[in-house]
Amino acid sequence: MSVRSTRNKKNLFGNLYKCILLDDEANGVDISSDQHLLAVVCGRGCYIYELATSTLLMKMNLKHVVPHKCNILMCRFAPNNTHLITIGEDMQIVTWNLTGKRPKVHKRMKGHQDLIFDASFIHNALVTCSADGKVFTWDWMNGKQLKANCREASCIRGLAVYNPPAPLQARIISACADGSISFFDSPSLDTTWTKIGGIPPDQKWAASGRFGASHAGWIDPQLNHTGPLFQCRLSSNGRFLATAGEDSTVKLWSVLSLRNDAASSRSYNEHHRPDKASALVAFHAAGRSHITGLSLALYTRRIAQSI
Question: Which domains does the chain possess?
Answer without folding.
Answer: 1-110+292-307 (2.130.10.10)
